[in-house]
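Hi everyone, sorry if this is the wrong subforum. Our group has a chain we'd like a structural model of before ordering constructs, and none of us has done structure prediction before. Sequence below.
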Amino acid sequence: MTTNLTYRQQTLVQLLSNQKFDVIADVGCDHGYIGATLLTKSIAKQLLFIDVSQPSLQKAQTLCQKLNLTSCNFLVQDGLGESLCDCAVIAGMGGKEIISVLTNAKKLPNTLLLQPMKNTPNVREYLCKNYHVDKDFTIFEGGKFYDVLLCTKGSDDLSQLEMQFGKTNLQQPTSQFAQFIDRQIDKYEKIVQNTMDKRANQTLNQLKLCKKEIENAKNI
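Answer:
Right subforum, don't worry. Here is the predicted structure as tokens:
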């Protein structure tokens, strides 16, 4: 029996597929699909399934039992806490919640795989102090856009546009990201036309700068 992953979940697993970890923590694991797949593919020797919700954690435990996975622990707690791991996967959580998880961790893992639901620029700003951002790109699934970040211990110096939009998106733009920017430009042009809001106009100018960067990257 195998888990049926969404495109978003498949993307996360694929980013770790060429690595091996002793311990991976799936923080906010919910049903446990990502963590179970990482165990099945032997990307992790041991998996910590962590969730603040006991019912969600029970779903992950039931899944692992069906898959005959034994190298796993199930922890009802808010974030990493005192749990130690080589890599932490934090997906489907708000950016500020992700920052809180990392701030309150006893020890930061060497590798982070993050998929914030919002406030990604705040996450990037936090990460630069303790991590190098290896990949930072946008994917499209189910009518929504999602940011995905893979980071390793170190530090980084992101430009203002990289902080706002993600450096992989700017250096190696995909059609999905270009579509996202075009939609955002349309959205903020309407806001500016109807309200003359200064902050909306600043955002619009950033989006247009980003579009120029995308066009320049495609011409290289």
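For your construct planning: The first helix runs from residue 7 to 16. The chain has two domains: 7-158, 175-219.
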